[in-house]
Specification:
It is built from three helices and four strands. By secondary structure, it is of the alpha+beta class. The protein has one domain: Alpha-Beta Plaits, CATH 3.30.70.100. Strands 2-3-1-4 form a four-stranded antiparallel sheet, covered by helices on one side. It is globular.
Length: about 90
């Protein structure tokens, strides 16, 4: 069953975050990750409103977790940590 990364982000340093995005995309795609939502129009009804929302689909939960923990993604994530405020959750699909 598929699994999803659901991320909401407020970018505070566009230049550094751009470095994250450049490295993160290939790392995610190397695990078969498919971007379902990448930014775009949204309306916040509950909780924190952050300008950037992303949903990535993976083949299964274990692959989604392995991608996050991979050296390639962790290298990318180093650029996002000080350049954004974000939440990321991995959720198993139905």
């Amino acid at each position: 069953m598929p699994a999803y990364w659901i991320t909401n982000t407020e970018v505070t340093d566009a230049e550094s975050y751009g470095k994250y995005a450049k490295l993160a995309g290939p790392a995610i795609e190397s695990f078969g990750g498919k971007f379902i939502v990448r930014g775009g129009k949204h309306q916040q009804f509950e909780g924190r409103d952050r300008a950037r929302n992303v949903v990535v689909e993976f083949a299964d939960f274990d692959t989604a977790v392995a991608c996050y923990n991979s050296p390639a993604y962790q290298e990318a994530l180093a650029f996002a940590k000080d350049a954004s405020t974000r939440d990321l959750v991995v959720v198993e699909g139905a």
